[in-house]
Structures are given as structure tokens and as C-alpha cells.
Amino acid sequence: MTRRRTLLRRMYLEAEERAIEAYTWYIRDRVRKRVSSKALRGAAIVLAAAGGLQPLASAAGAGGGLGWGYVLLASGGVCVAFDHFLGLSSRWMRDMVCAQEIQSRLHAFQLDWAVLNARDAAEQRPVPVEEYLELLRVLITDLSATIIGETGEWVAEFRSGLAQLNPPPGQK
User: Fold this and answer.
1) Does 47 fall in a domain?
2) Which of 84, 112, 143, 153 has its Cα between 20 and 30 A from that of 136?
């Protein structure tokens, strides 16, 4: 293998590894958010249902005061509020979108690289290095833009959550 091919192969593998690492991070993060979000939403459903049934149980003489129904309903609402203010459901969805964008971009890069390699093997003259470098540049730029965009959405959501918790004076 020529020195040119060796260097291009190493650059390809490094770029591919960077994309795979980013994809893997979002997939792993998605699992944590999904589990937490589903647990909070499930608890909210159970607590709201129990709170709604409490007056019936109390009327049937099964014990417990009517006040427990309010406590259970409020607890369900707290679970939904935690999910909302922690942004678990929305972060789970953003992780999925970001992972899919990264995976799609990586697949396009891999196919484009294969096309250049095929052209390089079929032609008498090698494909200019600039074409390979342009593929690398576009992949890294797209990965960065995807991650920066997702981070920007997270920051905006975080700020929005803070604003909801602490509105400016005069808006209370």
C-alpha cells in the first residue's frame, strides 16, 4: 500500500471513529433518558389513577380519607413536572434525532468514500487527494453542526425551564 493510501486510510478511520463515538454517546444517553422518563410518566399515571379512585374506595368503606386522593393526584402532577423541568422526554427525543442524523451522515460518508476508492482503482490517474479531504471536511463539519445544534436546543430548553421556575419581576 502506498504512503498516500495509508495516510488516507488512517484519516478515514479516525473520522469514522469520531462519528461512531458521537452516535454511541447519543444512543447510550437516550437509554438513560428513556428509562427515567417512562418511570416518571408511569408513576404519574398510577398515582393519578389511584387519586381518582380514592373517593370511590373511601365511599365503599375501604378506608383512607378523601384527602389521600388529593395527595395522590398532586404526586402524579409532581412526577409530570419533574419530567418536564428535567427535560427527560424532550432530551430523549433529541438524542434519538441526533443519533439518526449522525448515523445517516456516516453512511453517506462511507458510501462516498467507497465511490472515490472505486474511481481511484479504475482510473489510470489517482483521484486527487483534495477530493478525499473534502469528504473528510464535510463529515467533520456536519458532525460538529449536528452536535452544536442539539446542544443549542438543550441550552434553550434549560433556559426556558429556568425562566418558568423564576419569572422576571412583575410577571408573577
Assistant:
1) yes
2) 153
